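If your schedule permits, I should be very grateful for your opinion on a structural question. I have a record of one protein: its chain in single-letter code and its fold written as discrete structure tokens. Would you kindly read the sequence against the tokens and tell me how you understand this chain to fold? Thank you for your consideration; the sequence and its tokens are set out here.


***
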Amino acid sequence: MTVVAGLSCAGNVATGAERPKTAHEPPFTVWDVQLGGQVTDIPERDLAEVACGTNGGPPSRPLDNLADFNLCPPEEDGSVEIYISYDDEFEYRALALELPTEAALHAGTTVAGHPVIVSVLVKQDGEIVGIRVVTDTRADIRDRRRAASLATTLKSRYGGDWACDDKEPAAGEEPLSGIFIHQNCKKSDARHGVLSLETRYLRKKGQRGHDPITGLRVKGAFESTTRFEQRKP
């Protein structure tokens, strides 16, 4: 979708196009997850935190290790969501070496410089059946504002044709800076499985850029999000 682009300018299934890691990138990221593998194959030494997920939201119950995934409540389809975060050692290493671009790109748990919440979807037998990446609404206003642009990066990563549906504003929803985006996209192929991508860039009902009484600017009263899922076919 041009508006979104304008914001940014069987067996194991791969999660994305392979590429070499940089020297200051975490040794394990969500793109290293192999669908169809076992959750316990993920190297816990390369993670900072493991917890029960909350449908793409902040972590809930902390887990001592990945083998405890069955302590988390299942989702509607029976799979369990496991929240993971990356080791931030590599961000600080890049800062120490005066490599600000590398530090920004790999600061904490990020994708293409966007703060994200990452989780792995697991069946009751421990098989990984999906991954979930959602822009983090706890980020600062600047990062929140540009969160919808991550969709363009993800579309490019997986290539090919996406089938997209652009939604009309729901009751009370309004454009943000003259732009309204609520787009759902899907794509599937033998290599990557079933992909879904939701992008939102708008003001929700009751959100305003300025206080109607004082006229003062209201900071952060908007929604700009990207939600991505990849699942086994």
